[in-house]
Amino acid sequence: xxxxxxxxxxxxxxxEDRTFPPSSEFRAQALVSSEDIYAEAEADLEGFxxxxxxxxxxxxxxxxxxxxxxxxAKWFLGGKLNISYNCLDRHVQNGGGExxxxxxxxxxxxxxxxxxxxxxxxxxxxxxxxxxxxxRKGDRVAIYLPMIPELPVAMLACARxxxxxxxxxxxxxxxxxSDRMNDCDAKLLITADGGIRKGSVVPLxxxxxxxxxxxPSVEHVLLVKRTGEDVAVQEGRDLWWHDVxxxxxxxxEPEALDSEDMLYLLYTSxxxxxxxxxxxxxxxxxxxxxxxxxxxxxxxxxxxYWCAADVGWVTGHSYIVYGPLANHTTGVMYEGVPDFPARDxxxxxxxxxxxxxxxxAPTAIRAHMKWGPQHAEAHDLSSLRLLGSxxxxxxxxAWLWYYRHIGGERCPxxxxxxxxxxxxxxxxxxxxxxxxKPGSATRPFPGVEADVVDExxxxxxxxxxxxxxxxxxxxxxxxxxxxxxxxxxxTYWSRYPGMYFPGDGAKRDEDGYFWLLGRVDDVMNVSGHxxxxxxxxxxxxxxxxVAEAAVIGQRDDLTxxxxxxxxxxRGDVESEKGLGEELRQYVATKIGAIARPKRIMFTPELxxxxxxxxxxxxxxxxxxxxxxxxxxxLADTSVVETIxxxxxxxxxxx
Length: 654
Ligand code: WT7
Description:
654 residues, alpha/beta, Rossmann fold, GMP Synthetase, Chain A, domain 3, eight-stranded mixed beta sheet, seven-stranded mixed beta sheet, globular, binds 5'-O-[(S)-butoxy(hydroxy)phosphoryl]adenosine
C-alpha cells in the first residue's frame, strides 16, 4: 500500500526491540502515574476535555463543550477568555509575578531574565502600541522576528487585543514573507533591523522592505532594534519599537474573546506551490497546548524547560509561548545556532540554567551525534530529567544516543508526533507510565483517536502499515485553511470521509505502538520542516533557463531528507559550470535557505506517464537507491535507466 503512494516499505523500518519502562523514581513523581487516564478519556471525550478546561480562567463560562459538523469543530461554545490573560495576568495576580518566564540568551552571550510581571508589562505596552497604530480586533498582524523576547511579546500583545498574528520564520525570504502577508491581508508588520545567526546578520529589514513593495495591505512597520546596523526607515510607515512601545502605559485591558475567535494563522507547505494558512482559534488551542505541555513533559512548578525550536514554527507557538506560559513555567529561549561559538553551546546553556526538560528535533540530535559526545561530557547535565523529540521520525540510533549521552540513561525520551495543523502533540508517550521503544512515538494522547488504515480506509490489523488517520475531533485542531474552505476539505477530509488525514504513513506493532513512516504526499521533511516539492519546482522553473523541474526528498543522515532537484534546461541553454550552484542559491532567495536544494541534476528527460504526469516516485526510488516500483504506466521506460546511470555516475563528484 504505502509502497505505491510513497515508496515507503515496512522493510525500511529498523526492527528495534529494546524497551525502556519508566523508572520507579520517575513514575512515583510523575503527574500521570496511572493508565486510567486513557480509559477515562475514551469513555467520555467531552467530559475529559471539560475537566482539563478547569485549568483555564474564563471571563464567561462556556455552554457547550463540542459541536462537531465534520470537518468543522467548535469547542467550548459561548465561552469568553483571553489567552494573554491566561498566560500572564492570572499568574501575576496569584502572586507568581516574580517567577522567571524566560531566561533569554543571545547568541553572542548577552542575557535577559524576564519575569512574568515584566512580561505582562511589556505585552500591555505592545498591545497599546498596536492599538495606537490602528490595529483592531480581527486585523491580521505579520511578525517577522528573530528569537528575541519581543517575538513572544508581540504574539501575546496580538492575542491580548484579538488581532490574529501570523509569524513568519526569520529564515524565510522576502518573497515568502510577502506571499504570506498578501494571503491574509496583514495590516501591520513587526520586524527587526536584523537577526543574528552564526555570528552574522540576517537582513530582516531589508527583506521586509523588499516584501513590502508587493504587500499593499501593510500600513505600518513596527521595527525592533536588534543588531543596531543602519537600516532604511520610511517616514510615516516605519516606527521604532523603542519609540512607540516604550512610551505606552503598562496596563491594557485584555479583550474578552470568544472561544472560537481566531488566535493565529501559521503557513505551512502542502502539495501545491502555495503554502496554506492554518487557522487556530482560542480556547481549544490553548487547552490542547497547555494540557499536552503539562502531561507530556511532566511539568512541575520548579522545572526549567527548554524547547530549542524557533518560535516562528508551530513547535515554538505551542511549546515555547502558549503552553508553557499558560502553565506558569520557566523557560529558556536561545537566539542562535547550536555550534556558536563552539559545539558545546547547548550543553553550556543546560548547565548554566540547570535545564530540567529539553525538547528538540532529531536533526539537531544527529548533528550533536556527529560532533561527538565529548561536548556534552564537558558539562554537568545532571539537572536534566526528561527529553523530548519532534519534527520527523527519530531513528533508534539517534534516540539511544540522546538517551545515553544527554540523558545519562536516567531521562525518559518522549518522541512526540504532531503537526502545524494539529496544534498540539497527538501521539506520544506519557513519561510516567509508558514503556518506551526507541523510534516509536508510542500511543495517541488520551482523547486522541488515531488509527492506521489501508487505501479503502479499513483499519489495518496490528503489525501492519498504512496511512495514519485521526477519527475524532480534538480541541487544538485546525479550524480551516485561511480563505480556502475547499482546499481544507480536499486536503484533510476527502481521502477518508469523516476522518482527518495528516499525510503521514504509519505502522503499528503487535503492542499497538505507532511507528511514523514519513510523508506519503509530495511533501519533504527537511530538518523537521515541511517543504513542498511543488514549491521548489515552481521556484526553479521561474528561472528563464529552466524548462522543467522535478523535486524529491532524498534520505539524508543529518537532515532526514535532503532536497534533490532534477532539472531540464531549455533547448538553447548550455549547462555551464556553476549553473547548478546558481539555481540552488536562486531557490534559497525565492523561498528561504531551508529550501535550497542539496543536489541538482541536469537531465534531458523526466520519467512521465503517458498522460504526461511526472512520476516522482520513480525519481525517489532512484535517488534513494531503491528498486524501482511499478513502471508499467511509464511512457518511455528508457528514461529512468538514463537517469539512474547519470545519477550513479555523478555521485562521485560530491
Ligand atoms: C510533519 C509536521 C510538529 C512540529 C514540527 C513539524 C512530521 C513531526 C514527528 C515525529 C515522525 C514527525 C510528520 C508531520 N513529524 N513530528 N515525532 N515522528 N514524524 O511540524 O512542519 O507541521 O510538520 O512532521 O510528517 O506530518 P510541521
